Amino acid sequence: MDKVVSSAAEAVADVGDGASIAVGGFGLSGIPWVTIAALLEQGASGLTIVSNNCGVDGAGLGVLLSAGRIDRVIASYIGENKEFARQFLNGEVQVELTPQGTLAERLRAGGAGIAAFFTPTGVGTLVAEGGLPWRHDAEGRVVVASPAKEVREFDLGGRRREFVLEEGIVTDFAFVRAAVADRHGNAVFHAAARNFNPAAAMAGKVTVLEAERVVEPGEIHPDDVQLPGVFVQRVVELTPEQAVDKRIEKRTVSVRPEKTGAP
Question: What is the pTM assigned to this prediction?
Fold first, then answer.
């Protein structure tokens, strides 16, 4: 029941070439910094990454991308990662863009043992009809495009609507980050870090959870658990230095107006 491992390096030691990995986080919020760095050091390549986005230039999943270690990405947002856009347009990486809510539900469904589900999101668009560019060649021509998906009508709440079939996602591994976890893997996330982390953790066959603080079983009240330990196989306890080493994706600072008059 004690799932704490000695290091992040031990936690990712068996990630092989070609592995699929669900990664929690949104932008740079709540991403598993230490586990990603350990995988970069470990050397696995040809990876399939399932995540909301692929980090930013030089940070998060962006370090694996710039090192040429990622072959395919299932994501909802390319964002401002210039290297991600460059590799996609030059045929170096395959990208399956998926609506954000659909991606979250595909991860959750896979973790819950649900093979597929119907959603109205994407009906009447290329998401359902097929033809979204997945991979380009070096000249920018589309060589792999998304297939058409099944669309069916259902009566929902007295209204007849069309829904598109989306498949659940199960990955070989999942990397997530929590604010607090116990030795059994039960976890609590802080604020916006509770984004894709629980869903990604559910989708992994082997889930590595790095925690800023590890407590003993029973110290987290059952009502406060946001990710049950049944979905976690390995817990990495971060050092105080690792726990506070976080970057801000965009820093916007406004100039404070000068005070006038009496204080």
Answer: 0.93
